[in-house]
Specification:
heterodimer, A: mainly alpha, MetI-like fold, two-stranded antiparallel sheet, 11 helices, elongated, B: alpha+beta, D-Maltodextrin-Binding Protein, domain 2, 2 domains, 4-stranded antiparallel sheet, 16 helices
Chain lengths: ~300, ~525
């Protein structure tokens, strides 16, 4: 199947060529890169800063795609009900959505890895206790837990991230524990223990690197999940503030216009969210296939 | 027993669903739901509307809030401090018991004292004593003259001495106590889903129009419109402004619109030296600029009311210059809508010592008034564009009103700039003047919703005098004068009067009401 001779390949090189062997995954990857670049560059490429209320005027409200704003620029995909340029609004919204998704994913990952590794390595009662806690949390729908947490914590980007971390850590903990338990029984760990290496070194230098593959897979899936969850919370009006809309807020605002014929107000933010989540999931799926040794020849 | 209670509505629900809708059945899709069937629990539009179907008041308000006889056939002051009401004879409650003065006396006793009431009727009843003279005559006495007696009395539903006066709010919600003399009697109440009523065949007034009436709450605007278009309901209240244009072109739908008694306005913190949501441009604390009349006036001038009405409300609202729309008793004929004048506003700000403005947060509800969150955001745009950098924070009404009225650590109003609305339940200007403008006085029930704590002895004196002036013309002049002084002071900043829209399927229409209530008998054939 492979055209390059195995001897010239580094492991990373093989990973890259495996990954891009799938056209759909390549498309997803390129789309994701494009979305991230657009989001990062938003302040320099959008005609309007939608969070600066000085630049937004209600006189521009509900204009169809291609209209000219009072300030002179063209609103490529129209404006929303309070006069925000939708193109600018979506790119800024993407920044928030991606920040929330990635930040909460990374923090939850660190937390979940620590807890999962501890559970697997210590075993016994600690393990049971932690895993029952994980079971308990996973038995509730994550949207429900996030809703309750936001109700307690209050609105704001930091609180959303905190809520999403609390919702997500259990997934990482369970994955890491499962893999780590397998690894713990292997000879190289025994060997390391015989050498008298400290626990911490065995955990983080020996076991953890061998658990990385599933963590990466769970990480991408969870990031997409977190972005969707943030949009859900914002859609329900308990996520981010009205004047600094994330994609969820934009979609919620647009949903009021669904029957009115002003389709662009809800459709374009919805498409943006869809493309983001789909691209991350495509990348995640392919990572899972490539990194799973059982699926490889 | 609890099992039976659970099962009954379930079975009834299946039966209801199975019954085909006929011309005698009315299904209403409501933008907001009543919080209880207890007519005294919560002085809230949807609750009062449901109560008006099941109960009668001594005096009723028609669609423009003019007073008409209800359970009382006539009324008149018999001396400076006493009003006499003659009651209607031969009226029976829906359980068959007869209506007489005992029901009136006990109703007025229960009305102000319902436990846990989020907003009670006490404000209409403070200082009034009701006594039975004979079976069909009651006297209301006050310490001094009380010209708005009939308006106040018209807000109170009459419950039954036998089943209603000693009942709890729970008893009403279970239906055991929800027994009135009104045109419809309760069949079932499933909170969050429906309230079903049937015609009261023994009604004393004109024959109620519908055999059965079902109120269904459908909170989401597009879902409500979709339900109407799909024929799941016959009429909806609170038509979203963005949908009015396309519904108007739809030949299968009839729209009705009516100006309401509700003004949407801003309160400004005028009682704190340092206001919690006012900051200097560097983010540090500054002396509260909203105490300065020039700053308040500047803010009012920064607001382009025409833009709000045209762009946010889609033309379905009227710009406001005072507390009640034209035509209501006690409004001023001299006040005009504050003109949009950004240059004048900037000059005023500079004169007051804020040439570079300051920072401010506007707070508002996001599920109470028509387009409330959008209005808050647009006002923030307008202030930001003119030097007052304004942030927006909107929240559900369940959280919002508590914080807006008493959310600070000291139990005072928490916010600095507050978006709210006020519907004049009594249908005349003393209602907003007493509640929003007069100096806060908990014991006398004044200023209960004065969230900016505006206080001006001159206005207080005018209001107090109006409240004890029996001569209508003199009282109207006093109310108008009080309004003029308060608006001149920028006690509050009026934005617009709501216009309410109902949409019905072809063949029906709704007689629009200024009090915003959706009543079953207001739905008539086209």
């Amino acid at each position: 199947m492979k055209t390059v001779s195995p001897k010239e390949e580094t492991p990373f090189g093989r990973f890259v060529s495996d990954f891009f062997a799938n056209k759909v995954a390549t498309f997803g990857f390129l789309l994701l890169i494009l979305i991230i670049v657009l989001a990062v560059l938003a302040p320099w490429i959008t005609p309007q800063n939608p969070y600066d209320l000085k630049q937004v005027t209600v006189m521009d409200s509900s204009m169809p795609p291609g209209s000219e704003a009072l300030a002179g620029y063209t609103m490529l995909i129209g404006s929303d009900g309070v006069g925000r340029d939708l193109f600018s609004g979506i790119l800024y919204g993407l920044r928030i959505s991606l920040t929330v998704g990635i930040m909460s994913g990374v923090i939850a990952m660190i937390l979940g890895i620590s807890v999962g590794l501890t559970a697997a390595y210590v075993g016994g009662r600690t393990d049971s206790l932690i895993m029952r806690l994980v079971d308990l949390q996973l038995s509730f729908p994550s949207a429900l837990i996030a809703l309750m947490l936001i109700a307690i914590l209050g609105k704001g980007v930091d609180n959303i991230i905190l809520a999403l971390v609390i919702v997500q850590w259990a997934y990482y903990a369970r994955t890491v524990r499962g893999t780590a338990i397998v690894e713990r029984g292997k000879e190289y760990v025994e060997a390391a223990a015989c050498l008298g290496l400290p626990h911490r070194r065995i955990l983080f230098r020996h076991i953890l690197p061998n658990c990385i593959a599933p963590i990466i897979v769970v990480g991408t899936v969870q990031t997409a999940h977190a972005i969707g969850l943030e949009a859900t919370l914002s859609f329900l009006g308990i996520g981010l503030p009205q004047s600094e809309p994330s994609l969820g807020v934009l979609i919620a605002n647009g949903s009021q216009y669904l029957l009115s014929g002003k389709y662009w107000i809800s459709v374009f933010p919805g498409v943006a969210l869809l493309l983001t989540v789909v691209s991350i999931n495509l990348v995640g799926d392919q990572l899972r296939d490539v990194l799973n040794p059982r699926l490889q020849k | 027993m609890p099992n039976v209670k659970l099962l009954t509505p379930l079975i009834a629900g299946i039966v209801t669903a199975a019954t085909m809708a006929t011309a005698q059945d009315l299904r209403l899709g409501m933008s907001s739901e009543a919080t209880s069937l207890d007519p005294y629990f919560h002085n809230l539009g949807p609750n009062n509307a449901i109560a008006r179907n099941i109960f009668d008041n001594l005096v009723l308000q028609n669609e423009v809030q003019s007073l008409t006889p209800g359970l009382a056939v006539s009324w008149a002051p018999i001396n400076e401090t006493t009003w006499e009401f003659k009651l209607r004879e031969g009226v029976t409650f829906q359980d068959g018991s007869a209506f007489n003065a005992d029901d009136v006396v006990c109703s007025f006793k229960r009305a102000p004292d319902v436990p846990n009431s989020p907003s009670s009727f006490g404000t209409y009843l403070k200082g009034k004593t009701v006594t039975k003279v004979d079976d069909f005559t009651v006297h209301f006495t006050t310490e001094g003259p009380y010209p708005t007696m009939v308006n106040d009395i018209s807000t109170i539903a009459i419950v039954s001495n036998e089943s209603g006066c000693d009942a709890t709010t729970k008893d009403y919600n279970h239906g055991d106590a929800a027994i009135g003399t009104g045109p419809y009697s309760l069949v079932e109440y499933v909170p969050g889903d429906r309230i079903v009523m049937k015609r009261n065949d023994n009604y004393w007034g004109p024959k109620p129009r519908w055999e059965t009436v079902t109120y269904k709450p459908i909170k989401s605007g597009p879902a409500r419109v979709a339900a109407l278009l799909a024929g799941d309901v016959d009429i909806i209240s609170g038509v979203p402004t963005v949908d009015i244009a396309h519904l108007r072109e739809n030949e299968t739908i009839t729209l009705s619109q009516g100006s309401s008694n509700r003004v949407i306005y801003l309160h400004l913190d005028q009682f704190r030296e340092k206001s919690p949501f006012v900051k200097g441009n560097d983010g540090g604390e500054i002396k509260n600029p909203l105490i300065d009349q020039r700053v308040r006036l500047a803010i009012s001038k920064m607001i382009n009311r025409e833009a709000i009405v045209e762009r946010v409300m889609e033309g379905v609202a009227t710009q406001a210059g005072q507390l009640l729309p034209e035509g209501f008793f006690g409004v001023s004929s001299k006040l005009e809508v504050m003109a949009y004048d950004p240059d004048g506003a900037k000059a005023l700000l500079a004169e007051a010592g804020y040439p570079d403005g300051f920072k401010l947060t506007i707070h508002g509800p996001n599920d109470r008034y028509i387009n409330d969150a959008k209005i808050a955001e647009v006002i923030a745009q307008m202030l930001s564009a003119n030097g007052i950098t304004t942030a927006v924070d909107t929240m559900p009404r369940s959280v919002y009103f508590k914080r807006a009225s008493a959310g600070s650590p000291e139990g005072l109003p928490e916010f600095s700039l507050v978006l709210v609305g006020w519907g004049a339940g009594s249908g005349e200007a003393s209602s907003p003047l007493k509640s929003l403008i007069r100096t806060y006085d908990k014991d006398r029930g004044f200023g209960a919703s004065n969230r900016g704590r505006y206080s001006n002895p001159e206005v207080d004196a005018l209001i107090d005098k109006a409240l004890v002036t029996n001569d209508d013309a003199a009282r109207e002049a006093l109310l108008a004068k009080a309004t003029e002084v308060a608006i001149g002071d920028v006690a509050i900043i009026p934005l617009h009067y709501q216009v309410n829209t109902w949409a019905a399927r072809k063949g029906l229409k709704y007689i629009a009401r200024s009090d915003e209530y959706t009543l079953a008998d207001g739905v008539v054939p086209e």
